[in-house]
Amino acid sequence: MATHQIKYAGEADRELWDGYVRQHPDASLFHLFGWRDVIHATYGHKTHYLILTRRDEGGRVGAEGAKSTVQKILGVLPVVHLKHALFGNCLVSMPFLDGGGILADSREAEESLLSEVVALGRKIGASSIELRHERLLASGNDLRASCGEASPDTLQATTRTDKVRMLLNLPGSSELLMKSFKSKLRSQISKPLKEGLTSVTGGVELLDEFYRVFLVNMRDLGSPVHSMRLMRNVLDEFSECSRIVVVYKGKQPVAAAFVVGFNHVLRNPWASALSAYAALSPNMLLYLRMLEYACDNAYHTFDFGRSTAGEGTYKFKEQWGASPAPLYWHYFSLDGKAPNPEGLGKGKFEKAIRYWQRLPLFVTRIIGPSIRKHISL
Fold first, then answer.
1. Rounded alpha-carbon distances, angstroms, from residue 122 to 61, 94, 108, 343
2. Nearest-CA neighbor of 304 among 210, 189, 170, 107?
3. How many CB atoms are closer than 10 A to CB 361?
C-alpha cells in the first residue's frame, strides 16, 4: 500500500533532497538545498522547501513486528517568502536567480506541489506566487486547473516567456574552444590582450575586487546592489564549484564575473565591467577566461544567463555562438487581480533609476542591499 504526503523540509532532509535533485534530468543548480541557507543567511527571508513523497509499505516484518516502509521522493519545490509593504507579499522560486520552480517525476506530482504552494500562499496572506522554470510544466497553459481544489475564482495564472537563457555547447578543451571561434571574434578577443589587460581566476580571495567592479556597475545601471554577503555565502556553500574571474588594467580591476557549476553546466549569474574602460574591451577577456575555465574543468555547457531577445546583452552573448533556450516564468495571482509580469520591468522605475545613478557609491553600498533584498529579479 502506498501513501502520498507533502512535508516541509528541514536541515535533516538536506541529503535526501540533494540526492533527488542530483539524479533528476531536469534539475538545475537552483534546486540544490544550499540556496535555502544562502538566501536566509544573507537576507533573512523565510523559506519553505516542499517535498512530495510516497511511502510504500512492504511485506517484511521488523524485529518489533512492524511492517517496513520505503520512502520515495516524487518531487520538490523550493520557495522563498518575500514580504514588504512597498514591494509586496509573494512566494518566489527562486528569487535573484533564473530558475528553480517545481522538480517532479510526473504531472500528478507537479500538480500536488502546485496545489500545496497555492494553499501555503493563501495561508500566509501572499498576493502572488512566481515559479521560474527552464521548461514548461507538464500542465502547459492550463495552470489554473492544475491547482486542483486550491483554485477558487480568485486564482489567476499566466506565463511569461520573453526571457531566454543563452547557452553555448563547449568543446573538450580551451585550445579547441579558440579554434571554434570565427576570425572576427578572435580579433575582438585579442584587443584586451594587446592593451595589456590581465586576468586571475580564484575564489574568496578575489571577492573584494569583484565587488568593487560590481558595485560601480550596478550604480551606473541604476539598480540597487546585492549585499556582498550573498556572493560570500554562495562561495561558502558551493565552494567546490564556484569561482571568481577578475580582469585588470595594471592593478585596477576593470571587469569581474562569478561562476557556479552543476551537472556539467557552468553558469554566470553575475558579471560586470567598468564603463570607463570599455574602449579596452575587458568583457572579451572576461568571457574568454570563463569559457576556458569551463572547458578545462569538464563542463559541457556554458550558461551566459538571462537575456531578452534582440537586446544588447543578447547580441553580445550570441556572438560567442550561444543559442537561446526559453525560460517559463509562471505567475499566480491569489487576490483576484490579473497577474502583470510586465509591471516588473524597468519602465515602471525609470525615475528611480535616474536618481540612483546620481548617488555616491558609498551611499549605494550602504542602502542598496536593504532595497535589493526585496526585489526578486
1. 42, 19, 21, 22
2. 170
3. 15
| pLDDT tens digit sequence for 96-107 | 999 999 999 999
Q: Which residues pair with 13 in a beta bridge?
A: none
- Provide the pairing of β-strand 2-8 with 252-262: unpaired
Q: Which residues pair with 330 in a beta bridge?
A: 131, 159
The CA distance from 245 to 317, in Å, is: 17
Burial class (CB in 10 A: 0-12, 13-18, 19+), 110: buried
CA angle 312–314–319, rounded 5-degree value: 100
- Grid cell 556597475 in the structure block, residue: 217
Which of 44, 49, 46 is CA-nearest to residue 31?
49
Options 3.40.50.1240, 3.40.630.30, 3.40.190.80, 3.30.450.20; CATH of 166-326+359-372: 3.40.630.30
CATH architecture of 2-161+328-344: 3-Layer(aba) Sandwich (3.40)
Q: Is 316 within 8 Å of 288 (Cβ atoms)?
A: no
User: In this structure, are residues 123 and 295 in contact, taking their beta carbons and an 8 Å threshold?
Assistant: no
**Residues 6 or more apart whose Cβ sits within 8 Å of residue 63:** none
Q: In this predicted model, what pLDDT tens digit does every residue of 177-215 receive, in sequence order?
A: 999 999 999 999 999 999 999 999 999 999 999 999 999
Give pLDDT tens digits for 10-25. 999 999 999 999 999 9
Portion of the chain with pLDDT greater than 70, in percent: 90
Residues in CB range of 145: below 8 A, 6 or more apart: 139, 151
Model confidence at 60: pLDDT above 70: no
Tell me how far apart the alpha carbons of residues 62 and 198 are, in angstroms, rounded to a whole number. Answer: 65
Q: Judge whether residue 343 has pLDDT over 80.
A: no
211, three cell numbers: 565587488
The rounded distance, in Å, linking the Cα atoms of 143 and 136 is: 11
- Domain boundaries for CATH 3.40.630.30 within the chain: 2-161+328-344, 166-326+359-372
